[in-house]
Design goal:
146 residues; alpha+beta; 23% strand; disulfide bond; C-type_lectin-like
Length: 146
């Protein structure tokens, strides 16, 4: 049986459906809250490997903009680092840190700690600076697109 060649319009339609299917699959593993999708990993990676995974999903490591986004979970990478300039904390989108939730005595840069984890030992102040080479779970955030 001879295969019928589809018109460019139909082929474009299939591509759009395929993209839509892939988006739906990605969203199945995510939670939606206040205009963003969130994905929490089930595996552990370094800070950079975690960020790369988020970027592959069309997202980035979590940037905490509100108290509601301050997740009450343990040992997760967030998108905050001072790897460019020691002591100058910036989010992965380049914005400087303004509101913080550092744990007592943090950040302390013990052993060149340039990345940040949420470490739940205090419901309000649970950020801890750690070595970027530690293996931790992570949380990605993707803003909802209009």
């Amino acid at each position: 049986m001879k295969k019928r060649k589809e018109t460019p319009y139909v082929e474009a339609g299939f591509k759009t459906l395929t993209e839509e299917r892939d988006d739906l699959k990605r969203n199945l593993d995510q939670e939606y809250f206040n205009g963003s999708f969130y994905y929490i990993s089930s595996t552990k990676k370094t800070w950079q490997e975690s960020r790369d995974d988020c970027l592959q999903k069309g997202a980035d490591l979590l940037i905490i903009n509100s108290k509601e986004e301050h997740v009450r979970v343990c040992r997760l990478w967030i998108g905050l680092t001072d790897s460019e300039t020691e002591g100058t904390w910036k989010w992965v989108d380049g914005t400087p840190l303004t509101k913080s939730y550092w744990g007592s005595g943090e950040p302390n840069d013990e052993n060149s700690e340039n990345c940040v984890e949420i470490r739940y030992y205090d419901s309000k102040n649970s950020w801890n600076d750690v070595s970027c080479s530690f293996l931790l779970n992570w949380i990605c955030e993707r803003k909802d697109r209009p």
